[in-house]
Amino acid sequence: MNIIEFEKELTTLINKHSIESGSDTPDFILSHFLVGCLEAFSSTCKQREKWYGRIGLPANPPATASINIMGTTTGKSIIELYKATGGIPIKKNYTEEIKERDNK
Questions:
Q1: 87, 82, 92, 86: which is closest to 56 by C-alpha?
Q2: Where are the domains of the chain?
Q3: Which of 6, 10, 50, 73 registers the highest number of CB atoms within 10 A of its CB?
Q4: pLDDT tier, 92 (very low <50, low <70, confident <90, very high otherwise)
Q5: How far apart (Å, rounded) are the C-alpha atoms in residues 17 and 30?
């Protein structure tokens, strides 16, 4: 389903349940506003992921990871790795970040 079809169906749904009556705003204006909110939220999520350096990482990472950390391969859970690093996102330069943190 594309966004135009979704907005049309949302307009119909808003009208069907008389949701527009509370604000006395036409159903098509409300549906357009709500679609805009969804698009803004999607854009915000992408910006957040870019900021944290998580773009391109899987949305649902595996329960365990085999990651080479300073020459040692681990089979720890993602949660264990996250806690062990103080919540640092895993990136390409992960080993360097650990070394820098430990040298402080």
A1: 92
A2: 3-51, 67-103
A3: 10
A4: very low
A5: 13
